[in-house]
Amino acid sequence: MNTRKLLLVVLVLSLYCKAHALTDTLSLREVVVTGTRNAVDVRHLPMTVTIIGREKLTEQHHSNVLPVAMQQVPGLFVTSRSMMGYGVSTGAAGGISLRGISAGAGQMLVLIDGHPQYNGIYGHPISDSYQTLIAERIEVLRGPASVLYGSNAMGGVMNIVTRQAKTDGATTDISVSGGSYGTFQAEATNQVRSGKFSSTVAAQYGRTDNHRPRMGFEQYGGYMKLGYDITPHWNTYIDANITHFNSSYPGSVTAPLYEANQWITRGVVSAAIENHYDKTSGALSVYTNFGRHKIDDGTADPNNPTQRYFRSKDALTGVSWYQSARLFSGNRLTVGIDYQHIYGHAFYTSKTTGEVIDTPNKQSGKSCRNEIAGYVDFRQDITHWLTVDAGIRADHHSITGTEWIPQGGIVIRPISSGAIKAMASKGFRNPTMREMYLYPPSNTNLRPERLWTYELSWRHQLAHVTYGANIFYIKGDNMIQTVNRQNVNTGEIENSGLELEATWHINKYWSINTNHSFLHMHRPVVAAPEYKGFLGANFNYHKWTVATDIQYLHGLYTSVGDVERKESFCLLNASVSRPVVKNVTLWIRGENLLAQRYEVNLGYPMPRATFLAGVNVKF
């Protein structure tokens, strides 16, 4: 590490020593569901999990959960190119990376209530779908989670846990805001609880011109969740979430494009029945996430428009069952079965006639695959201070065959408020339809990507301070790369790093939280900063709430290979809110208040200082 990095480490540690005290974003006594499928005290889990609750998600009035996740989770980075809207296809943003492992390559998985969410053809998440209005909290598991969640969870998972009314009564929340570059947002949510029945219904609309010509973005969508408690031990729910966005793509500043437009619809529908007993709990669920995509690739000559649209349809339909039981004191055994049917269809259509004129797919424009898997996870408290955990998954893919995925870890609690954790876990990713069937580089003989992660961490909670530190090492091979215009399993990955985090509740008015991540990559990748630091402060006094934060990134790769480029920049953000009358709150948020010039995607300068102001009404 250089001198500046060492000084930052010393600063964080001195903050702890001076305060005598609190935890990472997650309290050591909180329960999580992402690492085990059943609610468990995080002190008994060997993996590292960060929880971000609804209060933190809505604190600065972001419409999408990803900006807050990037702030609160060390090692997590999300690419961006504008004030609002990530988009898809060439030049898109919204790529999520964790410890240098990229969701853009399908190596990190986004879940909604434990169900996988990604484009079935391209295998990556659609970041504009992850709206704050659906989220009760998010849980981010750093490191492979392939034992429980299979392919694409090789670098970690982000699980969005959806909202549900907890107490009897009805509440309605409405938010309207506007700001820089013609930006406008509106959201409305109604939640009802009446005895055994509960419902959440929400809708949202947003649009902006953004800071460059031909970069407009518009989005609208809705969410519904209906739940019913059959008995004190059994409940069921159905939910649906759909979003549509129209996005324009201006090209890079050195290679502008015209008429590059996208029309994207993404949706998910699921239904589940759950049981909760003293010694056992489980669920059976069915789900499907689907997409419809229409893309005009644009032209460099506005007088010579393209003659066709690229279109694709995809769906991922699955069935998931698991049951967790306590067989004897200190034990928890979880078994489960997952089945997925993944379908995709990519083709081109004529702009004038609408007829299909070409397909880039090797299998007559259609492709599908099936995956079935079974897994077992065993956790045992040996004593009050020692827990061991081991799990294994057998995952069979209809094309690439069977993959075995093990993991194991231990937790040592030398004191009741602290835990030492050690974890070794394997992650894998099956090749996508694009890599196997689409376009000239495709190769039907591809095998799954694989990696191992080894992690050692410490968590400690004191009276007012929680802090944590962990080191990790990642080694992987069989990574899919394009060599001589063909996709082949030749790539390797070797990353190591250090993550630090702390939260300090100073008094009833002030609190601060900070996190820092240092990443060394043997083979650098785009959108993975060598250092990411965050410091946030919250002030609450009478009716005033002020949240401010500063984020510094160093060594962010925007290009690798023969022409390597890095960015380093510092961003200052702040928001202020105050209730003006009963149930009515006014707020304002400013981003990049230092008006920094920087790029996250090469050739796409980010906006300088921007502002958004709005009103929230609750009744």
Q: What portion of residues belong to β-strands?
A: over 45%
| Helix percentage range | under 10%
Given as residue ranges, the uncertain stretches (5+ residues, pLDDT < 50) are: 3-28
The biggest beta sheet is recorded as: 22 strands, antiparallel, barrel
Total DSSP E strands: 35
Shape: globular
Class by SSE composition: mainly beta
What's the total helix number? 5
User: What is the residue-averaged pLDDT?
Assistant: 90
Radius of gyration, Cα only, in angstroms?
24 Å
Distance between the termini: 53 Å
Summary keywords:
22-stranded antiparallel barrel; 6% helix; mainly beta; disordered N terminus; 58% strand; 35 strands; five-stranded mixed β-sheet; globular; 619 residues; single chain; 5 helices
Helix-strand layout with pairing:
Blueprint (H helix, E strand, L loop, with lengths): L2 H17 L11 E2 L7 E2 L6 E6 H5 L7 H7 L3 E3 L17 E3 L2 E2 L6 E4 L2 E3 L17 E8 L3 H4 L6 E7 L6 E11 L3 E12 L2 E12 L8 E13 L4 E15 L2 E2 L2 E2 L4 E16 L3 E16 L12 E18 L5 E20 L5 E3 L7 E18 L2 E12 L3 E15 L2 E12 L3 H5 L11 E13 L3 E19 L2 E20 L4 E12 L9 E11 L2 E16 L5 E17 L2 E8 L18 E9 L1
Parallel strand pairs: 7-10
Antiparallel strand pairs: 1-2, 3-9, 4-5, 5-6, 7-8, 9-10, 11-12, 11-35, 12-13, 13-14, 14-15, 15-18, 16-17, 18-19, 19-20, 20-21, 21-22, 21-23, 23-24, 24-25, 25-26, 26-27, 27-28, 28-29, 29-30, 30-31, 31-32, 32-33, 33-34, 34-35
